[in-house]
Design a protein that fits this description.
Layout: E1 11-13, H1 21-34, E2 45-52, E3 57-61, H2 74-85, E4 91-99, H3 113-126, E5 131-135, E6 140-143, H4 156-159
Parallel strand pairs: 4-5
Antiparallel strand pairs: 1-6, 2-3, 2-4, 5-6
Helix pairs in contact: 2-3
The structure holds tetrahydrodeoxyuridine.
């Protein structure tokens, strides 16, 4: 029997001013685009802003549906738009922010499992780590890559026992 320990690094910042300029811009963009969310059911408005390796910033917000699974999270709304319009550009970083039912920034925010999986695909596709910037009410947390959010993942290698180009 073997036990393996998996460690992830999370860097916590107390306020926006501590962030590097690009990360700060992404957080502000995520806060702004959260206002465009269509969230009449959950009333939880989420914004995501990502930056591509060509410098382009792409934003998305959650879009809900009366038939719940037909809705989409902010992260995938931004990611898929970016991948569709800039198919050759790697995502370098993504910031996520949310406003809850009371109009306050969400106490703690982290991408759902499906968004982690979608972001991981993009990380593998372009072989570039994607910084994850989580804008919560009392702090901002940054992870260096999507692997940190989704260890022991199912991915392209799982389909071919590692013998592939993914
Ligand atoms: N949501 C996101 O857009 N991103 C997240 O990281 C968490 C959840 C959305 C989905 C749904 O519209 C609402 O927030 C409540 O779950």
């Amino acid at each position: 029997m073997q036990t393996k320990e998996i460690k992830i690094l999370v860097t916590r910042y107390e306020n926006l001013e501590e962030l590097i300029t690009t990360d700060r811009e992404l957080v502000l963009a995520a806060r702004q685009i959260a206002e465009t969310a269509y969230a009449p059911y959950s009333k939880f408005k989420v914004g995501a802003a990502l930056i591509l390796d060509n410098g382009q910033i792409v934003k998305g917000s959650n879009q809900e549906n009366a038939a719940t699974p037909a809705g989409v999270c902010a992260e995938r709304s931004a990611l898929f738009w970016a991948n569709a319009n800039f198919p050759n550009s790697a995502v370098k970083a993504i910031a996520i922010s949310a406003v809850d039912q009371s109009g306050n920034r969400a106490l703690h925010l982290s991408p759902c499992g499906i968004c982690r999986q979608a972001l991981l695909e993009s990380e593998h596709r372009f072989k570039e780590p994607i910084r994850i910037i989580l804008d919560s009410r009392n702090n901002i947390e940054i992870l260096n890559d999507v692997e940190s959010l989704l260890p022991l993942s199912f991915n392209g290698n799982s389909l071919t026992n590692g013998n592939n180009k993914f």
